[in-house]
Amino acid sequence: MNKNVSIYLDLLRLCAAIAVLLGHAHGYFIPSMPLWIASHADEAVGAFFVLSGFVITFVLMEKEKTYQAYIYARFSRIFSVVLVALVATYVIDKIGRHYDAVSYDTIPFYDDHYLASLVRALTFTNEFWTSHSVFGSNEAYWSLGFEIPYYVAAGLFVFLPGRLGLLATVLFLVLAGPKIALYFPLWLLGVATFKVASSKMFNLSSTAAVACFVASLVLYVLVKLLFADYKLPMNTTVGLQEGLQSLAYYFGISLAVAMSIFAVSRLDRSIDISFAFVTPYLQWMAGGSFTLYLVHQPLLTALRAIYPNIALSPVAGYLGVVGIVAICYALAEIGERRKRWYGQLGLQLIRPIERRIGSSSAH
Q: Which end of the chain lies in a sparser environment, N or C, as judged by fewer CB atoms within 10 Å?
């Protein structure tokens, strides 16, 4: 992966997380935020799926050549964030409810059955079939109920031999349910983007690459302006026609993201989009964006409960968002940025099981 693409992926990841934060902040207590800023939260999830498919294909082809390495890397990446996010959600919800329990009870998706939803959250079955299990106030967690099954599907396809891998992948998606299977093409678009971007074919001049990038922005705007009525929340169960229309909308958005990645991959190597005074900070911010995505919603909910009049002051609202970002990045220091430690913890848990399986098969 060339340097320009790597930096651009970091930028996309960070922008997508911020888009979700701002979209939710607009709904919670900053209604005056312009819609051209606050209306990209749903689309950002489509971008996340493309990024996920792209990166997973890269690591499978370049780094994680065995299923053990793949499981270790996914465990490290996911649980270094998930464990911190779930604990933080529980604590933050308790603090928020202490100040204003009624505001939580009026949230349509809020679920105070933490123990029951914890099992669904940790097994990433929270969105299987018609389920929409929410851990407390953290509805943003729903997308992991799609993304982790996509990781599993990719692993089954790659590491099981031949037709068995394809059959296992299809059966697993059937098990996961129709809405997860419906949006799998967005993730596969990320796979295709990596394949095309890493190929020596489809060469473009730098001028054509810039034109392609501009075209991706135009496509994004046109899809949002012309086809927004087709969009439905991905985590809702709908009929076939509505589902296909929604998929078409998100596919258009995701195609724009894929085109932009391809365009950046085709920039002449002499064109360097990294800047010494910006890139290190961008990479650091991107390194905590997963935590920002998974923890911001409980913090928004609690802040509104603690300061019920915060919506009356846009300045207070924006300062609250800055504070939420700061808390999320502080939590990233004990989670997301310590993924090797969590990976080692996972190995300590898995190795005894592997030894038992090995000794049983030997007998």
A: C
